[in-house]
Specification:
Layout: H1 5-9, E1 25-26, E2 35-43, H2 46-49, E3 54-60, E4 70-79, E5 89-93, E6 102-105, E7 112-117, E8 121-122, E9 124-128, E10 138-145, H3 162-185
Parallel strand pairs: 2-8, 3-10
Antiparallel strand pairs: 1-9, 2-10, 3-6, 4-5, 4-7, 7-9
């Protein structure tokens, strides 16, 4: 696997990211409570997946920061037409950054689903398969969101080069002298 998670996570470093509009995402009814929203579902290209067949999962906190490995949260998964006697299956959230936090293998012909397992609700991503060649991987990112909290606006801070400030100061001084000269001539 050669997935550059930084490339995808950087743009998600903010509160309340928009939900993924991919048809494979089944949104949960949060009822005004915090829940895990799928904010990115990416079908990995050949260069990223390198013959793997997995669902790679990352989790973001409410501010868009990637979670550290944890035993308190895990990824629940299964597949279509899974036998009832299989029971619940979980993948641990144990990988250090920049690897995705968790991964679930996709075995030939299976259509896998994944969701976050903790006390809050979670969107479910369904129909994930390794078709057509048996070596397809998907990257899913879930974010903890609170629908009652409005995202904060970005700061209005501007970073300016010192030389640019000096040029601006000289230009303003010249303009001020010109105005004073015109007022004196009136």
């Amino acid at each position: 696997m050669n997935l550059d998670t930084r490339k995808y996570l950087e743009s998600l470093r903010k509160p309340n990211n928009q939900p993924s509009m991919d048809e494979r995402v089944q949104a949960t009814a949060a009822g005004g409570n915090s829940y895990w929203r799928c904010v990115l579902l990416h079908d990995m290209g050949d260069a990223e997946e390198q013959d793997t067949h997995n669902v790679f999962v990352d989790l973001l906190d409410e501010m868009g920061e990637r979670l550290k490995p944890t035993t308190l949260i895990r990824i629940r998964y299964g597949w279509e037409n899974m036998a009832a006697d299989v029971g619940e299956l979980f993948a641990p959230c144990e990988k250090e950054f920049p690897q995705p936090l968790a991964n679930v293998a996709i075995f030939g012909g299976a259509k896998v689903w994944v969701e976050v397992d903790d006390r809050r609700g979670s969107d479910r991503v369904v129909g994930l398969s390794s078709a057509p060649d048996g070596h397809e991987s998907i990257y899913a990112v879930f974010q903890l969101v609170n629908p009652n909290v409005l995202p904060t606006l970005p700061s209005r801070k501007v970073i300016v080069d010192y030389d640019a400030l000096l040029d601006l100061e000289m230009t303003l001084k010249g303009a001020l002298r010109a105005v004073q000269t015109m007022r004196g001539a009136v």
